[in-house]
């Protein structure tokens, strides 16, 4: 049967993708940020750790979805997804290949488990999905994993609660556990950490809050699932709500899972960057 081996949390700042695409990763501004991902790149390339499939939780930034269509939880079930044109032409990164059988299985399992997923068959994927892949795998000719995209609305009010996201993670874990193919799966939660891109508090960073969130992903995830939207807004800025997507990743892992690696860096174009690798407990 399929199993979830690990979870990864990471920011998906568009400027990170641009720094990689324009070969700026060795510049003083970017070097410390990328240094924190080196451990993960080595870890994930080891055969015993490399997943067959990544369930990649991210948000679309008015690229595939806009005010005409706002799915709270969307799952991509097509064979492939093209990198989106976000205004400067599509990033020159590989096409994203799905594992459609697993994606359809997750859709079926979650919907019958009372999660009303929106099934999407045509969807370009923006930096929210491609930047995490670039961070973990660099610049390959083809992504070394299949990707099941799960897009969450955190752009238009109301986004789902952290607790609802956590429960979706639990439902995804049940779905994977009932998929009859012997494959290794990782769940990634992306977005965040604290950042505000507009208004009088533009540039807001709250390192203490972010680092406590990173710590409590393993120390006290029960606290995280009850954080209300207003606290994200007040403490982490208008875009910090993206962190609820990390709780889908966390909910997919067992309670006593442990962190293997953490990284926190400020700034990356007005945002705080966070990263964690969590090994899923075996029981
Ligand atoms: Fe985002």
Notes on the protein architecture:
The chain has about 280 residues and is of the alpha/beta class. The chain is built from nine helices and ten strands. It has helices at about 15-20, 30-45, 100-110, 125-135, 160-175, 205-220, 220-225, 230-235, 245-250, and strands at about 5-10, 55-60, 75, 80, 95, 120, 145-150, 185-190, 260-270, 270-280. The strands form two sheets. The chain has an eight-stranded mixed sheet with strand order 6-3-7-2-8-1-10-9, sandwiched between helices. Strands 4-5 form a two-stranded antiparallel ribbon. Helix 1 (about 15-20) crosses helix 4 and helix 5 packs parallel to helix 9 (about 245-250).
Architecture blueprint of SSEs:
Blueprint: E1 3-10, H1 14-21, H2 31-45, E2 53-58, E3 73-76, E4 80-81, E5 96-97, H3 100-112, E6 118-120, H4 127-137, E7 146-152, H5 162-177, E8 184-190, H6 207-219, H7 221-224, H8 229-236, H9 244-251, E9 258-268, E10 271-279
Parallel strand pairs: 1-8, 2-7, 2-8, 3-6
Antiparallel strand pairs: 1-10, 3-7, 4-5, 9-10
The chain binds fe (ii) ion.
Fe (ii) ion (FE2) binds next to loops.
Strand content: 15-25%
Number of alpha- plus pi-helical segments: 9
Number of strands: 10
Shape: globular
- Small molecules bound in the structure, each named once: fe (ii) ion
For the biggest sheet, the summary is: 8 strands, mixed
Please write the string of helix (H) and strand (E) elements: EHHEEEEHEHEHEHHHHEE
Low-confidence parts: none
Helix fraction bin: 25-40%
> Mean pLDDT, rounded to whole units?
97
The end-to-end span amounts to 15 Å
Strand order of the largest sheet: 6-3-7-2-8-1-10-9
Radius of gyration using CA atoms only: 17 Å
Alpha-beta content class:
alpha/beta
